Amino acid sequence: xxxxxxxxxxxxxxxxxxxxxxxxxxxxxxxxxxxxxxxxxxxxxxxxxxxxxxxxxxxxxxxxxxxxxxxxxxxxxxxxxxxxxxxxxxxxxxxxxxxxxxxxxxxxxxxxxxxxxxxxxxxxxxxxxxxxxxxxxxxxxxxxxxxxxxxxxxxxxxxxxxxxxxxxxxxxxxxxxxxx
Length: 180
What we know:
Elements: H1 2-16, E1 24-28, E2 32-33, E3 36-38, E4 62-68, E5 74-81, H2 94-101, E6 111-113, E7 121-129, E8 132-140, E9 145-152, H3 160-173, E10 175-179
Antiparallel strand pairs: 1-10, 2-3, 3-4, 4-5, 5-9, 6-7, 7-8, 8-9
């Protein structure tokens, strides 16, 4: 009788306040967005950053190269992390945004932009590189973090607002879903 009572109490304790397991997510990178297409074999932009393209986010942070469809002078190096270090649904410290964007960001420099129907938060910053300015964006919603770096070979560099509009086009094509 005592053994049966202990077993029932054990079952009640084991199932009563059990914390729900966090959801895991998977994503499908778009084949293209706006005027950009997913790079083919040997066209990686990530090589200049010392990385290789990884189009399978289940194998770690995905790194994808998107090239201008008509041989344009601008491309995008985009990363997707399904295990974000920060939940962008909360206010984020300068240090976290700096880490995500890979450049020092001070309060007020990272501007917020509308992310589109996907929701979450989109922030972009202008920074200096090689005696010129460029822009970089980060998006997150707690499920994933996307960073986007335009790679421009000539001509004017995109403003944060222009980069945000192109990242919004990428996010409109990105598919994230929960998995068991």
